[in-house]
Amino acid sequence: MAIVSRGFSGRRREGGERLPPGQYLVEDFPVLSAGPTPVVPPDRWEFAIDTESGQTHRWSWRELMALPRQRQTVDIHCVTRWTKLDTTWEGVSLDVLFEDVETTADYALVHSYGGYTTNMPLDDLLDGKAWIAYRFDGEELAPVHGGPARLLVPHLYFWKSAKWVRGIRLLDDDWPGFWETAGYHNYGDPWREQRYEDD
Amino acid sequence: MARRPTWRPARLAEVRRETGTARTLRLEVPGWPGHVAGQHLDLRVTAEDGYTAQRSYSLAAPADGDSVELTVEQVPDGEVSPYLTEVMEVGDEVEVRGPVGGWFVWRAEGTAPVLLVAGGSGIVPLMSMIRARRRAASRVPFRLIYSLRDFGGRYYAEELRRPDPGLDVTYVYTRTPPEGWRRPAARIMLDDLAEGGWPAGFEPECYVCGPTGFVEAAADLLLALGHAPQRIRTERFGPTGG
């Protein structure tokens, strides 16, 4: 039974069924990062998928740009409780990058320029659920938001959408990443409010 | 380690006004498990009809038994902060859970010199570190660079004026400096961090907290001064931190 806060009435902002529990809507785009913003020029950018059997698949910036791109509009949810509706991104579906990757791994550990890591089941990156995004709102992705390219996994809390993404390591066993070892939930489903470990 | 986070009732025990738009709330939270300087908590307010809103707030001081402190800035057009800064009275209740966050923290066992760089309300978790240092009688040298629009915007003004051996405080004013202030009004610059901070060779731990633009600028300046990225921890307060 919740405690009533005397004198609090609240705003009851719009959002309705698209707002996960405990979230509130924002119009701007807050920035959260654990350290300085890495600067990664596209000509030095590289993305790699390393399989559990030791094979590496690599893409340069130019190679990434040559792949079929998608444009999609999604809602994004940050564990710090803001939700932004109808954000528009352009990028390459992970399904395209995984076309020639042979793997039976169950888990992915995503890593970034700057050393950030985050983990998720591989299934959460496939079947149209995740992208390497390099444009936001019709513009090049700004460095503070992870430019030149970030992972975009809109169905999980946004810390899973690693900024400055550099690669994915496929693993047979789960390996928690940066926030997952710092008390945050291992999976991070906004609709089940999986914010912290044991939520 | 695993501990199911639980919501606990929190009763407002004391209020201190910091500025025209910010106040410090001391909450009594029976069963509060304690926390490390720099951590925050989640706060939930519930209206009579059951509508709830939740926000995260930095803890402003080390735990004192079941007593915790937050300093809340009123966000224009905010939903929760106007309640906390204007409406809530001593004796009123909210719920909290935590502590949360294990990265932007300072532990009293630390031995490296510490540089704190605060922009506006970003001082809150850094003040918790200053108070934790004092409480632990740590001799680790601290330097604080506190960037503000104007003199009246200072949080914890009295406390930061009192001598605290091993803590040096530098104020940077971006709009209206006090009369006779030598540094002209300007956003934080390389010289501010070079003079008010530590040489990179001392390998200090740097904590930067404030609005996004401020944190970006300060972190980039620290990198330019040779500080290693892995020793620069940042926490950004969006304008929507309401």
Automatic annotation (TrEMBL), chain A:
It comes from the Bacteria. Residues 35-179 form the Oxidoreductase molybdopterin-binding domain. It holds the Pfam family Oxidored_molyb. SUPFAM superfamilies: Oxidoreductase molybdopterin-binding domain. CDD domains: arch_bact_SO_family_Moco. Residues 1-21 are annotated as: Disordered. InterPro entries: OxRdtase_Mopterin-bd_dom, OxRdtase_Mopterin-bd_sf. PANTHER family: OXIDOREDUCTASE MOLYBDOPTERIN-BINDING DOMAIN-CONTAINING PROTEIN (PTHR43032:SF4), PROTEIN-METHIONINE-SULFOXIDE REDUCTASE (PTHR43032). This is DMSO/TMAO reductase YedYZ molybdopterin-dependent catalytic subunit.
TrEMBL record, chain B:
Coiled coil: none annotated. The keyword Ribosomal protein does not apply. Gene3D superfamilies: Nucleotide-binding domain of ferredoxin-NADP reductase (FNR) module (3.40.50.80), Translation factors (2.40.30.10). Keywords: 2Fe-2S, Iron, Iron-sulfur, Metal-binding. Its cofactor is FAD. The keyword Cytoplasm does not apply. Residues 5-106 form the FAD-binding FR-type domain. InterPro entries: Cbr1-like_FAD-bd_dom, FAD-bd_FR_type, FNR_nucleotide-bd, MRET, OxRdtase_FAD/NAD-bd, Riboflavin_synthase-like_b-brl. It comes from the Bacteria. GO terms for molecular function: 2 iron, 2 sulfur cluster binding; oxidoreductase activity. PANTHER family: NADH OXIDOREDUCTASE HCR, PROTEIN RFBI. This is Ferredoxin-NADP reductase. It comes from Nonomuraea muscovyensis.
